[in-house]
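[Automated response] Your request has been received and processed.

Submitted sequence:
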Amino acid sequence: MTDLAPHELRVLLAVGSERGFSAAAVALGMTQSAVSHSVRTSERKLGAVLFDRGRSGATPTVAGETALAHARRVLRLLEVMGAEVRGAEAGTGTGTAAGPLRIAAFRSAALHLLPRALERLTARHPQIAPEVRIVRELGPGTAGEVLEGRADLGIATIGTTSPVPPQLVGGVLVEEGYALVHPAGHAAPRSLPLVDWTENCTSYTREWWAEQDWLPAATVEAEDDGAVLSMVSSGFGMAVMPELSLIGPPPSVQITDLGPDRPTRSVGYVTTPELAKSLAVRALIRELRAVRQPE
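Generated structure:
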């Protein structure tokens, strides 16, 4: 098989992003026939059909989705190589952490774990430009963003039920416990309705959850942990929430420890083996480890 050139990878990504050959041609400043020829050449080299062509445009096949994920990762590595080589040429001898650093994080991690790490990171490496996307930790979650080449590093929930994917590497940053959250001063908080949200990592609490006779099924499902906290604050119900979601709670909320058998979850980072060696990702991991205890 002949290797694909970077420009061929960019054409594939443009077709995948624009969902059509004509739109990709406009985005790339090419003719439609040139885009079509490039895609056919790539398909021949890879030995697979990458797009289903139809009246509605071009939709990536399963093989196409795999190719697009690899294309994003390969092109990103070329960008990293350029930035680090230019830094080395500038006289540091060891390269310079510079350029964009794409981070995917779920909401509470983005609010309470990342800011201090990014503050320290950019103070030490002002040429790094962090780009943070908040991704719901559902399905592929933040690890999926890294696998698909859309992020260099993901802040993810890690555990036996959601381990680090075999294609990635990672490590635990925070081990956080869950607590009962309820309106302050309520005489019988366990009698209140349960408020929950889809993203709550119940995979970590499922066994514990099933053993709690006092814990009913959720009667309200909110959009995110912030909405849950707001509902609890207004007296609407109780909730079981992890520590990162409970930083800086309103005074109308009371947090009650669930005891030594409380459920916990691990929050960590994931990245690709290749990007784990890059200066920017290594620098961010160092800062995340330095500030991993939430305030």
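Summary generated for your ticket: DSSP finds ten helices and eleven strands in the chain. Residues 62-92 form the longest helix (31 residues).
If you did not submit this request, please reply to this message.
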